[in-house]
Design a protein that fits this description.
alpha/beta; Oxidized Rhodanese, domain 1
């Protein structure tokens, strides 16, 4: 009897621990400012949190605009002259608009302008359009960006917290992406 009671208590404790681990950390009041690759909350106030199945259905129906905020590695400043620099390829959800570096906790004015302009282009200025924001699993960049987009007056924001990791695990196609050009940049050539 004691063994079965101990087993029940252990099972209840294990369930409680695993359930709280699935919930993730609580939402902060502001933006996440550091350690961007860490467990994320299960919620985002004002936004809908999507599962991979839900994100896939939206993508399949072409019912939303997908915004990828995965950071882009900068070109190292001290490369020896003549060194060829190649950006690391980014595979994202086909048809997404990649707005790199827009998920940091604090954005420079030019980066914030880049995010705003990218959203206007992606949504054709429709602030009621469904905007699905993602990065990778356990990436605060997408959480921060979705939270910020809500402050811009977008009324239909969804956060796909599993991002390209969840998409790939589900066997869904990814495609090599190029970032949306910044003001004054030419669109990258596609090979």
């Amino acid at each position: 009897m004691k063994e079965s009671l101990a087993g029940l208590i252990l099972a209840a404790f294990t369930f409680s621990v695993s359930a709280s681990a699935q919930e993730g950390p609580p939402e902060p009041d502001g933006y996440r400012m550091e350690d961007y690759r860490a467990p994320v909350p299960a919620t985002l106030s004002g936004a809908r949190v999507l599962t991979t199945a839900e994100a896939g259905a939206i993508w399949q129906a072409k019912a939303g605009v997908f915004i990828d905020v995965m950071p882009r590695a900068p070109k190292p400043p001290n490369l020896p002259q003549g060194t060829v620099w190649r950006d690391q390829p980014r595979l994202n959800i086909p048809g997404s608009v990649w707005l790199p570096d827009t998920g940091y906790g604090k954005l420079a004015a030019a980066t914030e302008d880049y995010l705003r302009r990218g959203l206007v282009r992606a949504t054709a200025g429709n602030t009621t359009a469904l905007v699905v924001v993602y990065c990778q699993a356990d990436c605060w960049m997408s959480w921060n960006a979705a939270k910020r987009i809500l402050t811009y007056g977008y009324a239909n924001v969804a956060w796909y917290s599993e991002g390209t990791d969840g998409w790939e695990r589900a066997g869904l196609a990814l495609m090599e992406a190029q970032p949306e050009p910044r003001a004054g940049e030419a669109a990258p050539s596609v090979h």
